[in-house]
Amino acid sequence: MNYTEEYASKLTTAAEAVKVIKSGDWLDYGWCAGHPAALDQALADRMGELEDLKIRGGVALSVPAIFQVENPADHFCWNSWHMSGIERRAIAQGFAYYAPMRYSELPRFYRENVESVDVAMIQVTPMDEHGYFNFGPQASHLADMCRKAKVVIVEVNQNMPRCLGGFQEGIHVSQVDMIVEGENPEIGILPGAAPSEVDEAVAKLIVEEIPDGACLQLGIGGMPNAVGSLIAKSDLKDLGVHTEMYVDAFVDIAMAGKINGSKKSIDKGRQVYAFGAGTKKLYDYLNDNPECMSVPVDYTNDVRTIAQLDNFMSINNAVDIDLFGQVNAESAGTRHISGAGGQLDFVMGAYLSKGGKSFICCSSTFKGKDGQLKSRIQPTLTPGSIVTDTRANVHYLVTEYGKVNLKGMATWQKAEAVISIAHPDFRDDLIKEAEKMNIWRRSNRR
User: Fold this and answer.
1) What CA–CA distances, in Å, run from 26 to 32, 55, 77, 116, 240?
2) For the CA atoms of 98, 59, 232, 216, what is the dihedral angle to 10 degrees?
3) Domain finish residue from 148, 181, 214
4) What is the pLDDT of residues 402-417, one digit of tens each?
5) Strand 396-399 to 170-172 pairing
6) Which end of the chain is more exposed for a tag (fewer CB within 10 A), N or C?
7) What tens digit of pLDDT does each residue of 374-409 get?
8) Whole-structure pTM over 0.85, yes or no?
9) What is the DSSP string of 187-238?
């Protein structure tokens, strides 16, 4: 049988395909822009006859149809590897939960730890002449997820960018059980927040630490975007990219002629990433671009891989920090926000890199619901807050008031350094709290 014939033999409708799903199953929606659309709607249409479905996904870019059924908690629970705002709101509705992970371990989770994948259904590109469907901008963990699945259903979307790579960026028709030709929706957009004056101040402090030939990893949000914009306007040259998430800022830097990957010791000349999400500009840039290399996350985020790249610069956000140097990037107390993702992977990997630096950045303050200014630097993390980066791992910490390198410091030194970049209005109170916790010396500056 040739590939075209095999394709035709497996082609079916979304309504027929989802009939394979039964109550009690573990179902996987894949990841980010690869979440199914037609299959999702077909499942929503028959959700009333199902119960106790356990569904995995992550970084939802649009509201799944199944989220909009009546009393969703009566029929399924959603288990997210990393939550977008859409999924976060579903927690409050009682049917969504976070699955903690260090992102580099996710493919191994599927190989060794997850209970089951009864059905996997994901969006892919049209099949090529060799019989392969490309995963689009989310190689991430999908190859191992599909290998684990008892049934694999792919939904073809002609708008999915074909993302080239080195390995495990697609699936062959022989490994697929059913094929659905969807309605070709546009790929979900994840617009970057416009940088504020504080973001730009933080970005300036970080960019002055970046040398020519550095290799970049950027998280998502206003501050990393501000860093990217500043790099694009800078005199920096010969930059490389090795990141878990490909964001719009990389496109801007590349189009400004700053990226060529010529100084990379591995994957020379390639921009390496595990998944991408952003605007149409990003998807158009990634499509069929041989400079961009889509690979699984256990390659991009492995500290042993990162450590091979000299002058590795990792730039990520935080929700709050305490005087011990612990970083929370996941929650506001017990209220979940996003997830661990690969932040700790890159914090550790960048420090292992020759000349590498990891930057955790945030504004020094935020406005609470009561309109009052509150400090992001706390004596201790709010009860229930998650420690994303331990006090032993944090390298550079940056706010609009400066940057400090916390490596090699005793507790009293860290407290002094962290307080030095807090908002001035809160420093005296933080010093008093540090004294109560016995992490402030008389000789410390006041």
Assistant:
1) 18, 6, 10, 6, 39
2) 50
3) 181
4) 999 999 999 999 999 9
5) unpaired
6) C
7) 999 999 999 999 999 999 999 999 999 999 999 999
8) yes
9) PPP-PPPPP-HHHHHHHHHHHTTPPTT-EEEE-SSHHHHHHHHHHHTSS--S
Domain interval for residue 38: 3-181
Cα–Cα distance measured from residue 409 to residue 324, given in angstroms and rounded to the nearest whole number? 10
Out of 155, 244, 416, 433, the active site residue is 244
Q: At what angle do helices 222-232 and 248-255 cross, to 10 degrees?
A: 0
Which among 133, 148, 181 is the end of a domain?
Answer: 181
Regarding whether 167 and 137 lie in a shared domain, the answer is yes
Question: Is position 181 annotated as part of the catalytic site?
Answer: no
Taking each helix axis from N to C end, the angle separating 197-207 and 222-232, rounded to the nearest 10 degrees, works out to 60
Total residue length of the chain? 446
State whether 152 and 201 are in the same domain: no
What is 283-351 written as a DSSP string?
Answer: HHHHTT-TTEEE-BHHHHT-HHHHTTSTTEEEEEE-SEEETT--EE-SEETTEE-S--TTHHHHHHHHH
Nearest to 165 by CA among 59, 44, 274: 274
Residue 391 in 3-state DSSP? coil
